[in-house]
């Protein structure tokens, strides 16, 4: 197969895989978002905050839940011995993490100054042994670029989690409804993943293979530890200094930007890593792939992030009710943070596929050195979740610039090309923001439905028209890529 045809296949795989992954996430998270909107009316801010204690703890444990065995399985050549070793290693590690969660739960409750955290952490940690059985199957599907076959387990995970949580909330279980729903969702996904492949693990645990997996995985985990700290440090500090109710508001504020903006970038990152590993032998392919994915990510996440920041108030009033109006300024800051952070997700896939995942650790540590003192000021001095959100946005701006510069240098991509990749979306996004802001000012006395629907329509039309007028070649290029994918898909 020629280099050009390989590039076409990789482009098609990237577009199709990202579309499937985002469809999986968006459809499942849309269900979860609907359930969250219902739960926001059934539960209190305090309920969300208590569960936030548990989820924050579990997020930190997630980073060592497999010691990087999953990404290592993608990186290494596939064989039954490698897959079986990875399966049993995942299972053993998950039970170890489950035990660790039980041991540290009282200390975490002491940190958050809330004894309720002990029990919710211990019960939520049951998700580890439940989900570990299906993890290897999901990894093998990703390695084989069979992203479409992950739709059903992820979709049913979301449905089960949402319906279970709502049912138990109606029954009066309070914060426990969220915990029970999470475990039910993991159990459903595991059952479906188990039946997604005919492969079954052999009773094999090769020490040499395990060592090879862990050698790569530990490097990956180093980056993941930093990443998890970066993503959860705000929850730790808000929960400690501002209390359960403030954490509940902040947790809810994060839901929408995470759903709409960040997950698109995560979906592409999940897809691009196994594709990059197959591109390593083709000269300049990774540099070209990095340029194109940076452009396409920004074309989508820039208008989404800016638009969400602008319509946060009418959206919150309609979906969550006036009870959550204090979350609006935080949503706006987090939307900008999500936009900026999304632009650097692509770099992580390039580092991992190049066999240098430790670069993610170094760039993450740089961001952490800026973030920790800034967040400390936001919660200890300003004592505001709004300050927390805008601190995040500021640090994300600096961190993204550094991350993209490092990735471009590593791949041999001229830095000016990054500017060319981002220019179309930034220009059109700023024009869109100006028009939407004007519309909101003119309709400030209208109802939230008019502002929300009108703002979305005006923003979408302005952004599309701006791209067509000022960057028509980019639009035509994107249409040709997607047309080629559809014709060959």
Question: How are the SSEs placed, and which strands pair?
Answer:
Elements: H1 3-42, H2 45-62, H3 69-75, H4 80-112, H5 116-124, H6 127-143, H7 151-170, H8 176-194, H9 207-241, H10 243-279, H11 285-319, H12 328-342, H13 345-353, H14 358-382, H15 385-411, H16 415-442, H17 448-470, H18 472-488
Helix pairs in contact: 1-7, 1-10, 1-18, 2-4, 2-5, 2-9, 2-10, 3-6, 3-9, 4-5, 4-6, 4-9, 6-8, 7-8, 9-10, 9-14, 10-11, 10-12, 10-13, 11-12, 11-16, 11-17, 12-15, 13-15, 14-15, 16-17, 17-18
How many strands, what sense, and barrel or not for the largest sheet? none
Please mark out the parts with pLDDT under 50 across 5 or more consecutive residues, or reply none. Answer: 1-11, 485-489
Total helical elements: 18
Estimate percent helicity.
over 70%
How do the SSEs run, as a string of H and E? HHHHHHHHHHHHHHHHHH
Estimated structural class: mainly alpha
Strand residue content: under 5%
Task: Please tell me what the overall shape is.
Answer: globular
Q: State the end-to-end CA separation.
A: 18 Å
Average the pLDDT over all residues and give the rounded result: 79
**E-strand count:** 0
Radius of gyration: 22 Å
Explain this structure.
- The chain is mostly helical.
- The chain has a domain of 199 residues.
- Helix content is 85%, strand content 0%.
């Amino acid at each position: 197969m020629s280099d050009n045809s390989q590039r076409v296949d990789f482009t098609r795989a990237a577009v199709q895989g990202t579309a499937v992954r985002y469809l999986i996430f968006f459809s499942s998270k849309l269900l979860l978002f609907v359930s969250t909107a219902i739960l926001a009316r059934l539960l209190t801010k305090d309920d969300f905050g208590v569960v936030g204690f548990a989820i924050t703890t579990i997020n930190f444990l997630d980073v060592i839940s497999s010691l990087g065995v999953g990404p290592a399985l993608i990186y290494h050549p596939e064989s039954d011995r490698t897959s079986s070793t990875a399966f049993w290693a995942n299972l053993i590690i998950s039970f170890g993490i489950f035990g660790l969660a039980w041991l540290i739960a009282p200390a975490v409750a002491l940190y958050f100054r809330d004894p309720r955290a002990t029990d919710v952490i211990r019960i939520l940690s049951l998700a580890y042994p439940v989900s570990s059985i299906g993890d290897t199957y999901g990894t093998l599907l990703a390695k084989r670029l069979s992203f479409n076959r992950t739709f059903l387990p992820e979709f049913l995970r979301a449905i089960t989690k949402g319906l279970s949580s709502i049912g138990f909330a109606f029954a009066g279980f309070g914060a426990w409804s969220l915990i029970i729903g999470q475990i039910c969702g993991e159990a459903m996904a595991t059952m479906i993943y188990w039946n997604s492949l005919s492969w079954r693990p052999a009773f094999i645990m090769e020490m040499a293979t395990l060592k090879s997996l862990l050698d790569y995985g530990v490097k990956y985990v180093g980056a993941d530890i930093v990443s998890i700290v970066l993503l959860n440090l705000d929850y730790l500090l808000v929960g400690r200094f501002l209390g359960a109710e403030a954490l509940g508001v902040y947790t809810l504020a994060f839901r929408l930007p995470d759903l709409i903006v960040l997950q698109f970038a995560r979906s592409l990152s999940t897809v691009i890593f196994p594709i990059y590993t197959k591109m390593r032998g083709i000269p300049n392919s990774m540099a070209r792939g990095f340029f194109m994915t940076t452009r396409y990510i920004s074309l989508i996440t820039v208008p989404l992030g800016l638009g969400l920041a602008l319509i946060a108030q009418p959206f919150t009033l309609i979906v969550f009710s006036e009870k959550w109006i204090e979350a609006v300024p935080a949503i706006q800051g987090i939307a900008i943070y999500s936009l900026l952070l999304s632009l650097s997700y692509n770099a992580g896939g390039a580092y991992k596929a190049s066999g240098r995942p430790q670069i993610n650790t170094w760039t993450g540590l740089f961001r952490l050195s800026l973030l920790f003192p800034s967040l400390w000021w936001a919660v200890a001095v300003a004592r505001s979740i709004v300050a927390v959100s805008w601190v995040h946005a500021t640090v994300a701006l600096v961190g993204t610039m550094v991350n993209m510069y490092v990735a471009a240098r590593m791949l041999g991509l001229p830095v000016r090309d990054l500017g060319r990749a981002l220019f179309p979306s930034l220009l059109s996004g700023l024009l869109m923001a100006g028009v939407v802001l004007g519309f909101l000012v003119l309709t400030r006395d209208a109802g939230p439905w008019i502002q929300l629907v009108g703002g979305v329509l005006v923003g979408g039309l302005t952004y599309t028209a701006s791209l067509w007028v000022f960057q028509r070649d980019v639009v035509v290029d994107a249409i040709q890529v997607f047309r080629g994918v559809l014709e060959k898909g």
